[in-house]
Amino acid sequence: MPEGDTIHRSAAALRTALVGKPVVRFDAPRLYGPRPAVGRVIELVESHGKHLDVSWDDGLVLHTQMRMTGSWHLYRAGERWRKPDSQMRVAIEVHDWVAVCFNAPVVETFREFDIHRHPGFGRLGPDLCTAPVKELEECARRIYDYPDPSATIAEVLLDQHVACGVGNVYRSEILWACDLSPFAEVHTLHPADCVQVIQSAARMLRMNLANSQRVTQPDIPGGLAVYSRNGQPCARCGDTILVKRVGEHARLVYWCPGCQVKHAPARDITPMHIDREMDPHPAAAKFLSELPWRRDVAG
């Protein structure tokens, strides 16, 4: 019978193996709700008592409840499962791992409610994958004239009424490419900034239309500049990439505080008691202190 501490440990293991990686295969024979698309990036793994949730970058959440019988296992790709296939309720495969949920009584998916993404909130913006130049200019104008001038550019980029197509991976990558602080309030942006953001977004989305693995910066190993690279050095300035939850739904944004300083707010946006670069585990602290580019700081 699984207890809360067991599920907490399972969530920690799944988080290490899955977060920041695109789904290669998803199988859930008794699933109630929509299925995550292949290629969507896993963003969060969280546990609450006997509940374990997996969230993707498009706002889709997989909810599993263990009750008396359920459990999550983690296997290397190709490794034999310790329970029969007939007991499998969910299998999530990424490049090198397979997470399997066995015998969970509740397996369902839902989408985070976000009023800014709901069609009833107003007319959706143009699709950046196909929009012509005139419509891209309109998207830039919607950022510049955004109804809430105190909203951050990180929040506005996910508003589907400004433009459609940007998810959590792309917003971090777009803002890095534009040297923009994710916490810049839109009223501080110049028209040229808004145009640059939309043009970068359209370029990144279109270059990945035929790719199974997202690549936004081909010259950087792994193809991504900041997303899921927290604790690693920035390819542009060498500073340490950070991660923070922002917005109503606490979605993760990755950024480099060393070079993404354009329109950065004067106030401190990284309070130490809230944000951590990695899971709060002694091994993580030791790992960070031994990174070559941080040894001088630690000393």
CATH fold name of the largest domain, please?
Helicase, Ruva Protein, domain 3
What's the architecture of the largest domain in CATH terms? Orthogonal Bundle
Helix content: 10-25%
Total domain count: 2
- Please state the overall shape, judged from the principal axes of the Cα atoms: elongated
Describe the structure.
- By secondary structure, this protein is α+β, with helices and mostly antiparallel strands.
- The protein folds into two domains: 4-111, Alpha-Beta Barrel (N-terminal domain of MutM-like DNA repair proteins), CATH 3.20.190.10; 115-291, Helicase, Ruva Protein, domain 3 (Orthogonal Bundle), CATH 1.10.8.
- It is 23% helix and 19% strand.
- The strands form three sheets. The chain has a four-stranded antiparallel β-sheet with strand order 1-6-7-5, with helices on one face. Strands 2-3-4-8 form a four-stranded antiparallel β-sheet, with helices on one face. A two-stranded antiparallel sheet has the order 9-10.
- α2 (133-144) packs across α5 and α4 (168-177) packs across α5 (191-207).
